[in-house]
From TrEMBL:
It comes from the Bacteria. Keywords: Plasmid. The keyword Plastid does not apply. This is Transposase. It comes from Lactobacillus gasseri. Residues 9-81 form the Insertion element IS402-like domain. The keyword Magnesium does not apply. It holds the Pfam family DUF4096. Coiled coil: none annotated.
């Protein structure tokens, strides 16, 4: 088992979802396999970098983008999500009442009319 680089899937994670990815069908075979393309997408999402800043180890950003669009159109990510939904990753979970704020009117409190609209100006 190899140690994955930052933001990449581990072997066990890839083994769970690799059956959902479509096999190569027509034309010239791509030099970019599905796992590398998915790892490139994970790197982009986690780093927040633009497509053109994709590291060279993942291949051409255009190829990764094309693969991403095809997977979105086919509904692949929904299938993978449904497979992995029962195994949440709690590594980055952080809820605290100091960061979850709502305006008082968002809680259903009674709305009071504007005080200034009731005051009549004297001439």
């Amino acid at each position: 088992m190899t140690t994955p680089k930052r933001y990449e899937l581990e072997d066990a994670q890839w083994d769970r979802i690799k059956g959902y990815f479509p096999p190569y069908r027509t034309g010239r075979p791509s030099s970019l396999d599905n796992r590398t393309a998915l790892n490139a997408l994970l790197w982009l999402m986690r780093s927040g970098a633009p497509w053109r800043d994709l590291p060279e180890r993942y291949g051409s950003w255009k190829t990764v983008y094309s693969r991403f669009r095809a997977w979105v159109s086919s509904g692949l990510f929904e299938q993978v999500f449904l497979e992995l939904i029962d195994d949440p990753d709690m590594e980055n979970l952080s809820l605290d009442s100091t960061i979850v704020r709502a305006h008082q009117k968002a809680t259903g409190a009674k709305k009071t009319p504007n005080v200034w609209s009731k005051i009549k100006l004297l001439d």
